[in-house]
Specification:
Strand 2 (30-37), helix 2 and strand 3 (72-75) form a beta-alpha-beta unit. Helices cover 46% and strands 6% of the residues. The radius of gyration is 24 Å and the shape is globular. The chain contains 21 helices and six strands. Strands 1, 2, 3, 4, 5 and 6 form a six-stranded parallel β-sheet that branches. The chain is α/β, with parallel strands linked by helices and 474 residues long. The protein folds into three domains: 5-126, Rossmann fold; 129-164 and 207-286, Serine Threonine Protein Phosphatase 5, Tetratricopeptide repeat; 297-469, DNA Cyclobutane Dipyrimidine Photolyase, subunit A, domain 3 (Orthogonal Bundle), CATH 1.10.579.10. The mean pLDDT is 96.
Length: 474
């Protein structure tokens, strides 16, 4: 008897291992693997940032190679493309893993409804989260707003453990690439002016690279992770976030790899970071406007400033504050920014410059290879003070003392701000306070070789506190 044809529609699940939809699709079926770049529906993957497009291109390239060039590429409206393929191949079943982003959930629900009318079944699975958001609620049925009870009670105590990773489907049979498939370059993910090359040289994309990265992290980086993760020059971060975002590796695979390790504070802390990712998606799921709307409505009255020059200085890493500039240049050059430094540069934008967190969220979205709708939106609201379980607004990072504490030898700053390479550590973090002789010996002329600070740290902190007082509800 001839096996029926089915579609596996790849989205943010660009892997073969632990892929629930693919695992089910492969059972006694011929599988047509498809990737559709949706440039029609609001909020779909045509709205991803420029740096993420570069990652997506290389990830798709890797996946296609892993399945012997059988991945079919399309661009346009998924509904019409899928209907055409179903008619062409006599397909009655489509398998996909759910992307937990509001517009995509809505889009896929519309597609499912239309497919049902056509007699076609759309099968959706969870391949990207440890716990389905619908299953993690407080006893009164409302979503959690604080991380610790969400993670410890909602996830670990009151819910079944995460699904165990699935193996590669046995005897999977992929159909050949469709004759109307685009070439991967036709998706338009790589820019005409090849700025992407400088970012790509810092990364290895794809499923195999993701697992190599995890293995290496567990060998070396996890040691002293709890403390070392705060130091941008130390190798104590996993850099798994872009691999996870594009689904080259699942959180379940990471979770159970960690479970195999000898338990200690570093393992526990890294697992809690996976919990923060879940918390961000939980917030997004129950607050679809998380990217644009303050979770705490009092921040709608916050007296944000408008200053294009200061915003541009922040974006370019020319604020005159070394640790901030190092972070923003790391972002521009590599498509990534160390998590501690993310908090420092974000706090500087919203609290020292008093510029709306939307500007930071949008810039990160366009520049990060790991730009993730849930984590990016929740992270910016956390720093601004407007989000769930947010940092209190009066918690304002001092970028000078943060640099001194977490980059004490200046390794990170000197890497990304080479014009300050010869500055002694005493003044590396605050060169505007250096005596003229020190600047001269370091061959630094403030305002020429390196900018003067665009804002006074102490004065701007006081103004931020005044602004916060103005929106407090008495």
């Amino acid at each position: 008897m001839t096996q029926p044809n089915v579609i596996h529609w790849f989205n943010q699940d660009l892997r073969l291992l632990d892929n629930p939809a693919l695992f089910e699709a492969a059972k006694n079926n011929n599988v047509l693997p498809v990737y559709i770049l949706d440039n029609v529906n609001k909020g779909s993957n045509n709205f991803i940032g420029q740096a993420s497009m570069v990652w997506l291109h290389h990830s798709l390239e890797s996946l296609n190679e892993n399945i012997d060039d059988k991945l079919s590429f399309f661009k346009g409206d998924p509904l019409s493309i899928l209907l055409n393929l179903c008619a062409k191949y006599q397909i009655n079943d489509i398998f996909l893993n759910q992307v937990y982003e509001p517009h995509i959930i809505e889009r896929d629900s519309r597609i499912k409804k239309e497919m049902t009318l056509q007699g076609i079944s759309l099968h959706r699975y969870n391949a990207s989260l440890l716990w389905d958001p619908d299953n993690i609620k407080k006893e009164d049925g409302t979503p959690y707003r604080v991380f610790t009870p969400f993670y410890r009670k909602g996830c670990l105590l009151n819910s079944p453990g995460p699904r165990k990773p699935l193996p590669l489907p046995e005897n999977i049979h992929f159909l050949d690439k469709d004759e109307d498939s685009l070439k991967i370059d036709d998706l338009g993910l790589i820019p005409n002016i090849r700025w992407d090359k400088k970012i790509a040289q810092h990364w290895n994309m794809g499923e195999v690279a993701a697992h190599i990265n995890l293995s290496q992290f567990l060998k070396t980086g996890i040691k002293n992770y709890k403390e070392g993760r705060n130091y941008p020059s130390k190798p104590n971060v996993s850099k798994l976030s872009p691999h996870m975002h594009f689904g080259e590796i699942s959180p379940n695979q990471i979770w159970y790899k960690l479970k195999q390790e000898e338990p200690d504070k570093n393992i526990d802390h890294f697992m809690s970071e996976l919990g923060w990712r879940e918390f961000s998606y939980n917030q997004l799921y129950f607050n679809p406007d998380l990217r644009t709307k303050n979770l705490q409505s009092k921040f709608d009255r916050f007296p944000w400033k408008e200053d294009k020059d200061k915003l541009l200085a922040w974006q370019r890493g020319l604020t005159g504050v070394p640790v901030v500039d190092a972070g923003m240049r790391e972002l521009w050059q590599t498509g990534y920014i160390h998590n501690r430094v993310r908090m420092i540069v974000a706090s500087f934008l919203v609290k020292n410059l008093l510029l709306h967190w939307h500007y930071g969220e949008q810039w990160f979205w366009d520049c990060l290879v790991d730009a993730d709708l849930a984590s990016n939106s929740a992270g910016w609201q956390w720093v601004a003070g407007s989000g769930a379980d947010a940092a209190p607004y009066f918690r304002i990072f001092n970028p000078v003392t943060q640099g001194q504490k977490f980059d004490p030898d200046g390794v990170y700053i000197r890497r990304y701000v080479p014009e300050l390479a010869k500055m002694p550590n005493k003044y590396l973090f605050n060169p505007w306070e250096a005596p003229d002789l020190v600047l001269e010996q370091a061959k630094v002329s403030l305002g020429v070789d390196y900018p003067n600070p665009i804002v006074d740290i102490k004065e701007s902190r006081n103004k931020a506190l005044e602004a916060f007082e103005s929106i407090k509800i008495t």
